[in-house]
Design brief:
The structure is a homodimer of 371-residue chains. The first copy, chain A, has 371 residues and is α/β, with parallel strands linked by helices. The first copy, chain A, is built from 15 helices and 16 strands. Chain A has two domains: 264 residues, Alpha-Beta Barrel (TIM Barrel); 104 residues, no CATH class.
């Protein structure tokens, strides 16, 4: 089950305020989804995700299949119960990880042979297997098994990946059956607009309850990524949610919303957090820099999160330099809050039809990198 | 400032229920102090320490001196403010770490030359330096700079370490001056009862507001440790707090309380937590074992902590096997809660003069290792 309700559209761009209803509750869109690869959003516990306002998280099919195994999670009563998260979960198809984490994979129209990045053991994924795993996990939103052609792939290869993506999407749809889980289709087509258009048409033809734009943010220049996002999003039906996969820098999120995208996910805030990278209203900075040694101000002067209200840059820098888990926790917490509260402000601005003003002001400050 | 109030004594052993008043609040004893080596109790945030009932934490002078430096912490307004912990803090003298983390140290009556375990840089600690650092940190309880002779040291060496400990304790007392910080003396004397007695007499002669028993749990057999603890604790004044340093297994805590000890600290619950080691009412076990793969019950069936109420052994095992920080967090949380709530039960049992019954029952179950 999945319903999308369009609440309000911007009068100046494609930005839209919506609401998605899933089996585990409603999601207010546009939304940023924290990534919980191995059934945990790294360093964060479920109650903390709730505290910072996370409405839905993403988990990775590839990782959970390999460890601890989808059968165990099914036995536990599904992923929600296993990890003690009672709000919506989206699972990816496993395809992207199979391609990006395994350089020995072998792709045919039948599926993909690959080796585990954990122990080198041999495995095979195809559309049916991806559906089987995602149904066992019991996520609210499953993704169709697709092929994301690598950045730099030539036109012919991009066409063949597109064709496989359409073929596999049909197989996924035929095989997929679940009480409440909704299955989204994925648009591919590489860096070519004609192929993006063709892929969108073929996937929409299959009538999924939601659509994702895959294959972006895979190494291409920022301008090209933004151009393709802007081009592709409006090709998707207005009465269904639109999701751009793997995108999560603040500026990309704002541009995505402007293009009409409703859902985003990215490992950026969590991965940066473990390396001392801070997202702020004044741009990105590394807390490791010597200048923060005796800086007793908060990470972000405009942020009202728990971390910014209670800890200084000096203290957090000390923790990161000392390789202390508490340091990884504090920055991850702030970064996630930063993106989640950014989306909340974006939603409010769309409701008030002030999105363009908000976006312009935010980006001007963000790009100024005054920190 | 520091006051000790004896509230109740067991009618059957030396166990005692007391209250220590410090500048940052009162501490109910007997108490277990979580260790926050680098100005953080590993994986835990201050609000979580409060949530599990921690009343006081210990932090390490040696580590904070090397990184980020006591001058920075002084500039931040002291350790409490730097790390956002508003309850009492005890700092050790740095001596134990200088001896145990540096095999190139050189000890004379004047002090200890040592190399940093971080970057190999050369440093010198003496009683005055230890006092200077601890005063800058602004802990509620500082410890005198002592020499802990290594386990296996011969009689003559143990005597010379004892003599230095007394000499240095005098120097610490003369040099120490702080608005609110109390300075505790430390009893050494190795594994020899006559030397323990002599050290206790010499240190008590100097009249500190509290006394620690150092040099235990340094590699000696458990029986010897318990015998020396039982022998030494009653030598200390009844109207001052007694603290056994570096001891934290549940059975040692109970035996220590029985001997009349009020305060304990140990890295055990936090260190075990990061390795998958779980403390429970049925003894210690490693969550890594295959038998917990599909065990959907809590870590400890008798525990009512947040972790045991919300997560299964199966899930926590998965996190630990995946090297996920959330896994380290969950076990650390439980282990600390386990020891802190054990001490709470001990305090209650002393109030009711039921300590011996409680201790016997707890130990019988704990030693049965039925998990």
């Amino acid at each position: 089950m999945l319903e999308y309700k369009l609440i309000k559209k911007s009068s100046k761009c494609n930005a839209r305020r919506g609401e998605i209803t899933t089996a585990h509750g409603k999601i207010q869109t546009p939304i940023f989804m924290p990534v919980g690869t191995a059934a945990t959003v790294k360093t964060m516990l479920p109650k903390e995700l709730e505290e910072i306002g996370a409405q839905i998280i993403l988990s990775n099919t590839y990782h959970l299949y390999l460890r601890p195994g989808h059968e165990l999670i099914k036995k536990a009563g599904g992923l929600h119960k296993f990890m003690n998260w009672n709000k919506p979960i989206l699972t990816d198809s496993g395809g992207f990880q199979v391609f990006s984490l395994n350089n020995l994979n072998k792709i045919t129209d039948e599926g993909v042979n690959f080796s585990s990045h954990i122990d080198g053991s041999k495995h095979f994924f195809n559309p049916e297997k991806s559906m089987e795993i995602q149904m066992a996990l019991g996520s609210d939103i499953a993704m169709a098994f697709d092929e994301c052609a690598p950045y730099g792939a030539d036109y012919n290869y991009t066409v063949s990946a597109l064709n496989r993506t359409t073929k596999w999407a049909k197989q996924c749809k035929e095989y997929h059956h679940h009480d409440y889980q909704a299955l989204f289709g994925i648009v591919q087509g590489g860096m070519q607009k004609d192929l993006r258009k063709r892929s969108a048409e073929e996937i929409i033809e299959l009538d999924f309850p939601g659509y994702a734009i895959g294959g972006l943010s895979v190494g291409e220049p920022a301008d090209l990524m933004l151009e393709l996002q802007e081009f592709t999003a409006p090709l998707l039906p207005e009465n269904k949610p639109r999701y751009v996969m793997g995108v999560g820098t603040p500026n990309y999120l704002i541009e995505g919303v402007r293009a009409g995208v409703d859902m985003f996910d990215c490992v950026l805030p969590t991965r940066l957090g473990r390396n001392g990278g801070v997202l702020s209203h004044n741009g990105y900075f590394s807390i490791r820099k010597a200048q923060y040694f005796d800086d007793f101000t908060p990470l972000d002067h405009e942020c009202d999160c728990y971390v910014c209200k209670n800890f200084s840059r000096s203290y957090i820098r000390h923790l990161i330099k000392s390789n202390e888990i508490s340091g990884f926790r504090l920055i991850t917490w702030h970064n996630l809050y930063f993106l989640i509260s950014l989306m909340e402000k974006i939603r409010k601005s769309i409701e008030d039809d002030e999105f363009e003003t908000f976006a312009t002001r935010f980006l001007a400050k963000y790009y100024a990198q005054s920190v």
